[in-house]
Design a protein that fits this description.
This protein is of the alpha/beta class and 724 residues long. The chain folds into 5 domains: 6-105; 109-191 and 527-573, Alpha-helical ferredoxin (Fumarate Reductase Iron-sulfur Protein, Chain B, domain 2, Orthogonal Bundle); 202-297 and 445-508, FAD/NAD(P)-binding domain (3-Layer(bba) Sandwich); 300-441, 3-Layer(bba) Sandwich (FAD/NAD(P)-binding domain); 580-724, no CATH class. It has a 5-stranded parallel β-sheet. A 5-stranded parallel β-sheet has the order 6-13-7-8-9. Strands 16, 17, 18, 19 and 20 form a 5-stranded mixed β-sheet that branches. The radius of gyration is 32 Å and the shape is globular. The N and C termini lie far apart (74 Å). Bound molecules: flavin-adenine dinucleotide and iron/sulfur cluster (2 copies). One iron/sulfur cluster binds at residues 108-110, 120-121, 124, 161-163, 170, 172, 575-579.
Length: 724
């Protein structure tokens, strides 16, 4: 796969060839110029599908040229066009450059960052307009779990959100949860698309986690009959048996799974792949392709003496048992080993499951712990004890079961290359008594079926599959999710399922498999909100009050509050609409370099160390000349006159406004007062006696003409002073 944009690359190649005069014959040079013109239109989002045929025809002629250099260029381009056609199409059809190299077509950073490619800017703006169900529809085009993700997504979109260049990122995740709840309350819990007619082909999905269910959803929407085989008694994977219910209420998950089932997806629970069903049997039953997404449901081992004693539990097993409602009786004192998010979930669940005290012990220093800071903080608030820089050396036995643990001091966790390579000081020991010890130090996949089903494994015991197509070496079998790439997140699994569904569709239709990762698609062009620069800057990310930790630690119910409609509307309106403004900086450079004003704070947003931006700077410094709007390629920045007022707005945010002035003779618009003042000020630099005039150019000409004609013919001179 090519990581660079072939449109941009070919523009560069042609420009270079032109500059170096590589081709000399006039005929092929004309074809090169034609190619360049077409490519530039594609890169600017001004092309139609006919451009592809025109490109191919032009390149054919170039390839047929007698001059060797021209023919080589033509052939090379034809090869690129054949191999990367879908990238060219994406530029034209969805005005998207998936690599972001064609500046004007780069998706918004939040959409680029989302592994499922959700059009964040679009649904955020729909929420701002109160169109909640439509916002959820937009999410569902890429992700069948809007509500789940609204509560537990790791939100890479917020990490990339450009609003943090002004203050704090948009609360995208909270907005998603808000919209999902509103859609549900309004009775608008629905599919976003009408599924394609059934095509008679069957696909088997192994594992009903987010990866498997996302693949099933996208395949069913595409007309396939999908059966999901799930080992456990319930669907959802780690969303159902890993993430604790106090973070993800199960009824929400059920509502989302039921919507997938409403597409005709059949979920057969308590059926284990490799044991109850095999590839051979499923092929014989008419399944044409398979998607294996079995996750990581085994716990990592410490390999420390005494680990198999009674009373020592495994983190992932413990969470599963709790989620399945099976009784897990814990003693008074519980130790949890591990410093990651799973360990925190285990510790907080142990408190809720009845443990008297829970102590978390990990190798890392507090600041090195891989768990999210918020999760650590909440665990501490609930009363979980934390001991850093200790690793287990042996489990202590009393009467045939565990009674405690001896720890050794960990002096460092990572080596110079940041690889996990803990070092210990064996002289510093720590002994802790416990009735139960839960080991939560990592996950592994139960991939025993790989051997019997002939599936390849990687050196790290993951299922081997192509990183783009998710195809395994067994060509009708695709694999994705945690089982392939290791422990990650729900949204990455959803993205993997969506991408695998696309590959399976190509495979079953006899089409070439995709050569590059799924493209983020712009779903809709939504309206902008009008508000003042002052208001835009004053809006603050809402803080949701956390529930009382004393209440929290007693229940598996989710107690956290959600955004109110007013908070959601204001938060959505804080968005900078990076789907419209492409941060090319042309407006800012015109303002700075041509007008000498530097009134636009959008420059350098994409640089690693941008200056703090503030829209209010424009209110103070802009003269309403409109030069920026002439140069904005996307219409993000506009100047408009309305009811005697001139306004400059950026994606709806009114940056500057002033009254208009009109020609005192004919009433034609002259410009905003501050613009005329600016011009007058500049003119004074040339001619200090110039008065500030309120006449349009036509009326000035006419005035001069009249005055000229009023002078008797013999006394006329070619120069007339205006203020004469
Ligand atoms: C405790 C915990 C908390 C987490 N918290 C978060 C969080 O807050 N946010 C976040 O984004 N991510 C979180 N994650 C990670 C996230 O849950 C996973 O990355 C995601 O669920 C992986 O999806 P998947 O579909 O690949 O696998 P899974 O969700 O693991 O689903 C795999 C499914 O396959 C089934 N299966 C396995 N073997 C077989 C077989 N032989 N036959 C049939 N079925 C089989 C399993 O039973 C399971 O249902 C958490 C993970 C854990 C363990
Ligand atoms: S400001 Fe809006 S469009 Fe820009 S990255 Fe943030 S959420 Fe996306
Ligand atoms: S507003 Fe400025 S930075 Fe944004 S697209 Fe227009 S010219 Fe480029």
């Amino acid at each position: 796969m090519n990581d660079h944009c072939p449109v941009k690359q070919n523009i560069d190649i042609l420009l270079e060839a032109e500059a170096a005069q590589t081709v000399l014959d006039p005929e092929p040079r004309r074809h090169m110029t034609g190619l360049l013109h077409l490519l530039e239109e594609i890169a600017a989002g001004r092309a139609a599908m006919g451009h592809l045929d025109a490109l191919a025809a032009m390149a054919d002629r170039l390839a047929a040229a007698r001059e060797t250099a021209a023919a080589a260029l033509g052939r090379k381009f034809l090869n690129t066009l054949a191999g990367e056609r879908e990238v060219f199409q994406s530029h034209i059809e969805s005005r998207n450059c998936p690599t972001g190299e064609c500046d004007l077509l780069a998706p918004a950073p939040c959409q680029m960052a989302c592994p499922a490619g959700i059009d964040v800017a679009c649904y955020v703006s729909l929420i701002g307009q109160g169109r909640y169900a439509e916002a959820v529809d937009v999410i569902r085009l890429d992700n069948p779990f809007p509500w789940v993700c609204g509560l537990i997504c790791v939100h890479p979109c917020e990490t990339e959100c450009l609003r943090q260049r002004l203050d704090t990122p948009i609360a995208i995740r909270d907005l998603k949860a808000f919209a999902a709840r509103q859609a549900m309350s309004a009775g608008l819990w629905r599919l976003a698309q009408v599924p394609a007619p059934a095509n008679g082909q069957r696909v088997a999905v192994i594992g009903a986690g987010p990866a498997g269910l996302s693949a099933a959803y996208h395949l069913a929407l595409n007309g396939y009959a999908v059966t999901v085989f799930e080992k456990l008694p319930m669907a959802g994977g780690m969303m159902a048996v890993g993430i604790p219910p106090y973070r993800l209420p199960r009824e929400l998950l059920t509502a989302e799974v039921e919507l997938i089932q409403s597409l005709g997806v059949e979920i057969r629970t308590e059926v284990a792949f490799g044991r109850d069903v095999t590839l051979e049997r499923l092929r014989a039953d008419g399944y044409g392709a398979f998607f294996v997404a079995t996750g990581l449901h085994l716990s990592g081992r410490l390999n420390v003496p005494g680990e198999d004693l009674s009373g020592v539990l495994k983190g992932v097993d413990f969470l599963r048992e709790v989620s399945l409602g099976r009784s897990v009786s814990l003693g008074r004192r519980v130790i949890v080993i591990g410093g990651g998010n799973v360990a925190i979930d285990v510790a907080r669940s142990a408190l809720r499951a009845g443990a008297g005290t829970v102590s978390l012990v990990c190798l890392e220093k507090r600041e090195e712990m891989p768990a999210w800071e918020d999760e650590i903080k909440e665990a501490l608030e609930e009363g979980v004890g934390l001991t850093n820089c200790f690793g287990p050396s042996r489990f202590i036995e009393e009467n045939g079961r565990v009674a405690g643990l001896e720890f050794k001091h960990c002096t460092s966790v990572f080596d110079e290359d940041r690889r996990f390579n803990p070092c210990y000081d064996e002289c510093v020991l720590n002994l802790m008594k416990a009735d139960n010890i839960i080991v939560a130090i990592g996950q592994a996949g139960d991939v025993e079926f790989a051997r019997t089903e002939g599936m390849a494994l990687t050196s790290r015991h993951g299922l081997a599959a192509n990183a783009v197509t998710y195809q395994t070496p067994v060509t009708d079998v695709f694999a994705g999710g945690d089982a392939v790439y290791g422990p990650r997140s729900v949204i990455e699994a959803i993205g993997a399922g969506k991408a695998a569904a696309r590959s399976i569709h190509c495979y079953l239709q006899g089409l070439p498999l995709p050569r590059m990762a799924a493209l983020p698609v712009r779903r809709m062009q939504t309206e902008v909100f009008e508000m003042s620069a002052m208001r835009k800057m004053e809006l603050r990310r809402p803080r949701l009050p956390a529930a009382d930790p004393i209440l929290r630690r007693r229940t598996f119910e989710r107690l956290e509050t959600e955004l109110s409609p007013a908070q959601a509307r204001d938060e959505a309106r804080r968005c900078l609409r990076c789907d419209i403004c492409k941060r090319c900086g042309q407006c800012a450079s015109v303002c700075r370099e041509k007008m000498g004003l530097d009134a636009l704070p959008f420059n350098n947003f994409d640089s690693p160390d941008p200056p703090a931006g503030d829209f209010r700077v424009t209110t103070d410094n802009c003269v309403l000349c409109g030069a920026c709007t002439e140069n904005c390629p996307t219409g993000a920045i506009r100047i408009e006159t309305h009811n005697g007022e001139c306004r400059l707005s950026f994606c709806g945010t009114v940056l500057c406004r002033d009254q208009m002035e009109y020609c005192r003779e004919c009433g034609a618009e002259l410009g905003a007062t501050r613009y005329l003042d600016h011009v007058h000020h500049r003119m004074q630099g040339i001619d200090p006696l110039q008065p500030r005039r309120l006449l349009c150019a036509d009326c000035i000409r006419k005035d001069l003409e009249d005055r000229y004609l009023a002078i008797p013919a013999g006394r006329r001179s070619p120069v007339i002073h205006l203020d004469d």
